[in-house]
Amino acid sequence: MTAAEFKNAVREGKTPNFRDVDLVTCATCAVISGISAVMTIPAVGGADYRDCTSISLNGIECIRGKVNDDGSMEVTVEAAAVSPDRTSETIPKNYCTGDLLRDIAEGKEIEIAVNGKDGILEDIIFPEDIVSARLYACIGAGENGCALVNGGEKPLKNEHLFQPLGADFSEAFVYGCGEITPFVNDPDLRSMGVGTKILVNGIIGTITAINDGEDSEGVFAGVKVGGPSLSVSADIKDMMPEFMGGLATKSGRESVIAVAVAIPVLDSESMAALSVPDKDIPLPVIDLDKSVHVGDAGYDAVWQDADRSIEVNPLNCLYCGGCPAGSLCPRKAVILGGGIIQSRCISCGRCLNTCPGEVYSMNPGNITIKEGIKEGIKEGMSIPIKLRLSDRRRAEELCEILKEMIEDGEFTID
Q1: For residues 47 and 248, what is the distance between their CA atoms, to the nearest angstrom?
Q2: Exposure b/e, 249-285, CB count within 10 A at least 16 = b
Q3: Which of the two ends of the chain, N or C, has the fewest CB atoms closer than 10 A to its terminal CB?
Q4: What's the predicted TM-score (pTM) here?
Q5: Residue 116 phi, psi (nearest 5)
Q6: CB atoms within 10 A of CB 140
Q7: Distance (Å, whole) CA 340 – CA 334
Q8: Across-strand partners of 355?
Q9: DSSP secondary structure string, 378-401?
């Protein structure tokens, strides 16, 4: 079963038993900055990598590594690297690591520039010519994330946010996929460990490390929130592009990633962990103005009482000059004339706030403060969600993909 199927059965009072299910697929899809890659790129005509001082792929500066006997070279693409503004028609502004890795997965041609003793050599390489390309990522998947609010008197601007955060607790920005997230369903790490097979952007990968969160802190828009994390690795070239790509913030670009894990149903203890629904998963509420934890809500308001995806009504398009929603979409998913590229959209809600014609619609939900009340927030207060930085719809899709792979024998539990 997928985590969504399992949890829905629990909500209906039909909790599955050991005869019904032996594995539950869980996933998360979120915006993170910790995605990098190591690649072995082919030699290009006239370039001697031993003499080059710098090398870039689609304008992104790479860290040079070992030069092999066949003339190829190992390079590292750093997390959150951003290409400078360019005149190239194929490379948009704020192009980043996530965009490059998605282009490789899509099979697009890649512009390479090698700066050597004889000047700059520019050429084109194709993903099939890249000898190897492997993604490495550190993913905060344990406590899901948090809800950011602003208790100040003025809208708050932050370099990690898409847009100013409304004053006086008038709106919330939310992170986390709630009940289907891997660590929620395996909180004691009984089934996940170093070497465990997982799906990374639709391709089989491996957990390379687990940090239990006791000695570290995750960071959400500049606010530190403790929680465990996964480090994962997988080949890039066969990944599903719809789970990948860059995302614009005020400070540059982040990346999107989706991972899925199969959690075995071992005993009553694991059954209890798998039965925890959205409403019982704490959502810490952080006042970004003061950088303090002011209360807690639950993920039921985020994902049970809200829409998963954006609806589009192109007849409402006013054909504005420049298309405000298109220019401000962090994923470049909005199309001029009232359309949307579904393979890029993560249903963050940015277009709801920027399209004057109301072409785009979605109920993003509200958070309701439950406990831990202080600093001006009252119990029962309802705060509208304005932005979502995790994509439950996409995570549920990956759960389905992993379930099908298990049923077809393409993914086995070792």
Answers
A1: 33
A2: beeebbbbbbbbbbbebeeeebbebbbbbbeebebbb
A3: C
A4: 0.90
A5: -125, -170
A6: 28
A7: 5
A8: none
A9: -TT-EEEEEEE-B-HHHHHHHHHH
